Structure formats: C-alpha cells, structure tokens
Amino acid sequence: MLFPHSHRTRNLHTISVTCLGLLIVTFSGCLPTTPIEPFSVESVSLPEMPSRPTGKAMAGSTALRFNVSLPVELGQPGEASQVVVLMPSKKPQLKLPCLVYTPAGSPLFAGMQLTQQDEMQMLPYVQMGFAVVCYETDGGAQALTPQTPPKEMAELARKYVASKAGLVNARNAITWALRCFEEIDKTKMYAIGHSSGGKQALLLAAHDTRIRGCVAFAPACKMDSSIGRLIRSWPVEDPDQLVTEVRRSVPMSHSDRIQVPCLLIHSHNDRIVRSSEVQRMGQAIGSESEITEVDSEDHFDIPQVGFVTAAKWLQKHTGLESDDSIDPIRPVSLPAKSPTPVRRTNVRHNSGDVQYNPYLQ
Fold it and tell me: The Dienelactone hydrolase domain covers which part of the protein (predicted)?
C-alpha cells in the first residue's frame, strides 16, 4: 500500500454506531452557495530555517532520508514541525521534480502526525526519480478515539484551524526544502495525498502558487452536517465560529481557486469517501481536473490500485522518464494486517453493514 493509514485505520478499536455516526466524514450535499475567503497563510511568520541535515540511507531502498524539526514554539501555528525529505541516493544529473505529501488518517477537524511508516509509502515515487517532502499538520493526536474527551478534540480542532488548516505547516516545509535542497526543481512541485491527505493536497493546490499540480486519491472534499453537530456538542464558547472555520478547511470551499492540473482518483467500492463527491469536486475544479475511477476493494487500497495511473500522470506533467523497474502491483511491500470490522448503520435505508473502521480518514 502506498499510504499507511489504510493499515493504521484498520487496527483501531471497534467504534459504536452512535459515535461513528457523528465522527465519520461523509460527503453529500450541494456546492457552497456563498464565497469563502481563502486562508491568509502570510499572516503567520516563517520560522527560522535550519541548515540541511546529513542524509541517512533508508534500509532496503535506494533513498536518502533527511529529517528536521523546524523551530516553532509549542502553541504557535506550525508547531507540528517535523519535516522529512526523501531523495534518490544517486546524485541526479538534472533537478528533481518534487512531491509534497502529508499522511492520511485524520478526522475532518484535526491534523495528522507524521511517522516513518508514512514515509515508507512514498518510496515508489522516490524510485521513480522524485524528491518527496513529507510534513505533518497541527492538531494531530497519537490515539484519537470516540472516547477522547470533547475538550481534547476541541483543542485539536483549534490548533488545526489556527494553522490555517495545515497550510502553515505545508508552507514552512516547502520553504525549508527549497532553501536547503538545490536538487529540487521548484518549477515541478506537485501535492499528493490519500483521503484526508488528499484533502490537504487539494487545499495546498488552491493556496500555494509553488504547487503546479495535484494527485488526490479518494480525497475528503466536503463537510457533512454531522461534523457540525459534533463540534457544537463540545464545551467551547464559540461553536458556530469553529464550525465555520472547519467547513472553510474543506477543498470544495476553495474549488474555484484551483488553477493547476489535478488528478482525482475514486472508486465506487469506497465506503468512506463517496465516489460521487470526488466527481463533484473534479467538476467544480473544471477543465484543469482529470477524474479517474479505479476498481479497488475499498477505500484503503485506492492508492495502490491507482498507482500506475498516478505515476503515468505525474510522468506526463513533469517530463520524468518512465522507469520500467517499478512494480505497479505492490509498489511497496508491507505485511498484511487484519482489518478491524465495525458495524455501520446506513441511515437512508435503516440497515447495517460491516465496514472497516473509518473513524480516521
């Protein structure tokens, strides 16, 4: 699998139907009827930029790993400051196109921490000849469950909102990478992600002019009313304002700002992010979007099944030569893990079905 949270997600505890109904990110409804202001990332100052660290070889691969924690004080936007750059170990003759990536696994109102397992899933792209900038977003938690106290969830949401929906984290990571890695071609930077990571990729494409395109696997595109009800149940002074800011963080709210080529990959077998919503997002973007359906088993294997499509699209748009040595079936070999089934109620038809734990997107 290219993205690990299909595994992380499946290993969480079983969730009650009540909590699941509140916390699952489902996508339905119409397009926004009123304009939503873009995020002003410039209002948050850049941190100091550390020097380039020494790269370390990643075991069993031909990639080098460079890791840094940007000096952002706790409590300030961008505090989730770990950045990892992955590059081919062989010095390139030409500058490298670059992918900007943050992992899947977060609910709509929060961010996501970065782990080394996340980085491993990007190795197929490094093998293709890409540099990869991996970053995390504010408001992430190691273990967010329905038993997490509402006060703690509200704090995560506030941190995520304060970071301009993770765009401050992305801005800081990209700026540092471009300053320290002259091997990166700044004219060929593409955002990529799955599920909530796909959401972040689309947001980045809408707000950062350094991003020249986007690949989003089953991206979370729109906020469902159940998330608003959940947030309004928290012990906060301004629940309506927090709902507004979380709604502002979904890509559909900024679809008119996306002016770069986008590849949106979806599946009708996806029980987490509706295929129709991904298609609607592509239609909202307009002529710059390419919408592709893949025959996946579920939400979690879409990045694997769609890898060849994404690879060819990226090669076309970046001018990167094809590498026939890439295994398109299992680009990264990870041990299979047993999914954790949960019972989810189909509200429309008043029936239940068994589905992998979708608490984290």
Answer: 127-288
